[in-house]
Specification:
This protein has about 270 residues and is an alpha/beta fold. The protein has a single domain, classed as Nitrilase/N-carbamoyl-D-aminoacid amidohydrolase, CATH 3.60.110.10. The chain is built from 5 helices and 14 strands. The protein has helices at about 15-30, 65-75, 150-155, 185-200, 250-255; strands at about 1-10, 35, 80-85, 95-100, 105-110, 130-135, 135-140, 160-165, 205-210, 210-215, 215, 225, 230-235, 240-245. Helix 1 packs parallel to helix 2. The longest helix has 17 residues, at about 15-30. The protein is globular, with a radius of gyration of 17 Å. InterPro entries: Aliph_Amidase/BUP, C-N_Hydrolase, C-N_Hydrolase_sf. Keywords: Hydrolase. GO terms for molecular function: hydrolase activity, acting on carbon-nitrogen (but not peptide) bonds, in linear amides. This is Putative amidohydrolase.
Length: about 270
């Protein structure tokens, strides 16, 4: 199957976001992509700062059955598409992602782990759940979730062979490097992608925003990582599509033939 991770910028204008999403889906369809993963905050963009208080304002809030999501589903057709948006919640909205095809929603995730400032504008999710899709069992994480090994491990233990991580991951605000490739957040972003794939022996699909929003400068660096931690395809700081073709079940099984990390855990020894 063909898997692709998107690197692109998505701003506040919803119509522009949806048009760009449809264009990217169309381009992916022309390459017979089966699974397409967009960044966090695909519809309406991310916060301008971690507190979300600058002139860029806050992203729009959509309901679970918003017409915007139905429009994306119509464009997706047979393709499995993951994308992010700000979802209505009882007191604060969620930073959410949805996985869908033209037949409807396959799974959802609400970001659990919140960096400094997010708690004032987002309600935290409370679970990690793998789910079945036409391309195999899948789990989703959002951005900072991947910093915590337990998040990806929960999805892998739930049977996920692929984990889609949707990010709006910026460069360091406190120690900016002259070039994004030298930024410490670039190093961490790449490190987490490869480590989470290798330690869980899964296919890892990491999509990230590019460009800027307020004070934030996003890294790009979208990639697909194999179950041995090897980068199979990637973008750099600019917009693009990280595309690769592989037998997911076969590669995961091969990675677990001799050493199976999930089977060989000793949870009774973990504090």
């Amino acid at each position: 199957m063909k898997i692709a991770a998107v690197a692109a910028h998505f701003g506040r204008d919803i119509d522009q976001c949806l048009t760009k999403i449809e264009m990217i889906i169309g381009a992916a369809a022309s390459q017979d992509v089966d699974l397409l993963v967009f960044p966090d905050a695909t519809i309406g963009g991310y916060l301008g700062t971690f507190a979300g208080t600058d002139e860029t304002g806050l992203p729009p809030v959509l309901t679970e059955d918003a017409p915007e999501l139905k429009r994306v589903a119509a464009a997706a057709g047979d393709m499995v598409v993951c994308l992010g948006y700000r979802e209505f919640g009882p007191d604060l909205p969620y930073n959410a992602s949805v996985c869908l095809t033209g037949d409807g929603v396959l799974g959802r995730h609400r970001k659990v782990h919140q960096p400094v400032g997010e708690a004032s504008v987002y309600r935290a999710g409370d679970r990690f759940s793998a789910f079945d899709t036409p391309v195999g069992r899948l789990g989703m994480l959002i951005d900072y979730d991947k910093t915590f090994p337990e998040a990806a491990r929960t999805l892998a233990a739930g049977g996920a062979l692929m984990i889609a991580c949707l990010s709006a991951w910026p460069a360091s605000l406190t120690n900016r490097a002259p070039r994004l490739v030298q930024d410490r957040q670039t190093r961490l972003f790449d490190l987490y992608d490869c480590a989470r794939a290798a330690e869980n022996q899964v296919v890892w699909v990491s999509a990230n925003q590019t460009g800027t929003m307020g004070r934030l400068r996003f890294l790009g660096q979208s990639k697909v990582v194999g179950p041995g931690g090897e980068v199979l395809a990637r973008t750099w700081a600019k917009a693009g599509l990280a595309l690769t073709e592989l037998d997911v079940a076969g590669e995961v099984a091969r990675a677990r033939t001799v050493l199976s990390h999930l089977a060989e855990r000793r949870p009774e020894t973990y504090a």
